[in-house]
Write a structure and sequence with these properties.
The complex is a heterodimer. Helix content of chain A is 11%, strand content 41%. Chain A contains four helices and 28 strands. In chain B, helix 1 crosses helix 4. The chains are: A mainly beta, B mainly alpha.
Chain lengths: 373, 175
Amino acid sequence: MNDLRRSLKDLVDDARLPDPPSIEELRERTRRRGHPTHRPRRLLAGVLTAAVVTSGVVLAIAYGPRSSTNGPNSSVTQVTRRPHTIVLGPEIGQPTVLAASNGKLWVSGYTPDNGDGPLLEFDEKTGTLLSTIPLPNGVAYQIATGENSVWLRTQQGEASTHLVKIDVATHRIVANIDIQRDGGLAVTSDALWTIQGVFGLLRIDPQTGSTIATIPLPGGEYPPLSVTAGALGVFLGSPYDGSVLRVDEQTNTVSVVTHIGTRVNQMVELGGSLWVSTGTALVEMPVNTGHPGRSIELGAPILGLTTDGHSIWVTTDKPKSGAFRVDPTSGEITPTPLRAGVGGLSAAAFDPMTDTTWATASAPKPSLVLLTH
Amino acid sequence: MQVTTMGCDPGSEHLGVSFEAWYRGEYRNIVRSLMLITGDAEVAVEAASEACARALERWERVGVMASPSGWTYAVGLNVARRTIRRARLEALFRRGPVPVSIREDASELWEAVQQLPRQQRAAVVLHYVADLSQKDVASVMGVAEGTVAATLHAARKRLANALRQDVETKEAGRE
């Protein structure tokens, strides 16, 4: 066995292996995503893809079963084709939340009779239902994935919400914390950030579930409710007055950065900007200026927002073409092809491990759909 | 909702292992493994670099996983798969695969590895070249651990047969 290991390791001529790119080059690769230098290649791919779809010939080669003409040089591990649609089954009638992480999809929502649905776990690659976890305190309306855990906010009434932690290995609920008022949720490696309505922003230790800090928020009865966390920091957004706020993680304080429109719904970070959905528009806020920049009109209320590190993916309630990919550099909006009858898209999520973006759909059946370029 | 944590300090060791230390030790092995799986040197280098860049972005999360390398291999294989699919669409306008530089004295083994079915080749490379445990190989490939064991067994048998035949053919030629 050791001989085989040694022989295989020695197969490649080490002298011809490249040196690792520097850390700065790796960072530059990340920064370059969405930069104009990448566009011609994507444009070429898009044009070619359109031509292929029109001809209908090469498509069968690209997405159909692998033919015997595919040489050994063109193969990687995936043998089975990733499903484009995963039907949720009888437990969920209207999905409300979706997270994608490490090849798994986590989805919850209302049951067909408007009851509180369970959390379902699916394998992205096969579409197999892996687990069904009943949620104890109302319907899930926020979700985030952490280290070996899924966090949810559930709600029974305006003053009865809970923060639920699920261990992904055991599929057990390991924390169920009474939060009292609603608000968003985001996870970083050392903290879970969630809003407790008028009572402020909670900074919680994700390991123990204990509250590290309760940070007062402006707005009185109308506080910011959405939260996002990424490389640029932790940001909050208000659905009442359009304010965007930044959290100072050192001092546990919050300050208003700017106002975007009359409301802030969801936010994602991409490149050096925060991208904010406000009604039917997507607005860029470069973090270094703190001022609203370009506004990209989608023409319909934005329901879901995520990023794959290159583009922003948006779902809207437009019939037939409800999903769009937005180029952060050019602002170009590209509709995502959906299968006939698919509609009612809402939540969207990107899995960096599998490089795939998914959205929830309610028609023709409650399902998860793979969004493709 | 975006929950990724990005842009961590590559030298940070608060998670037990710094990105830089892991990266320096693993990068060439990731390239080597992806070369053997894809058979395309350029695709392998690009996929390995992209996977490592994504690992760096998310090191606060990836660094504390039981197998950061397993996560990175899974990302690298997905990037490679997407690149190869795109290359097929662009085949009329684009060059073919860039051959992997194989040691001169290892051409028979390389031939035998290339003849392995896709799953077997991936399992063999991930286990023997990338040094992933069978559990991690199962996770990367999205199959059960028992399937990996059976796949490795079948691959070893196939390799042994192929190499034996090769030796016998050479000896018959000398006679």
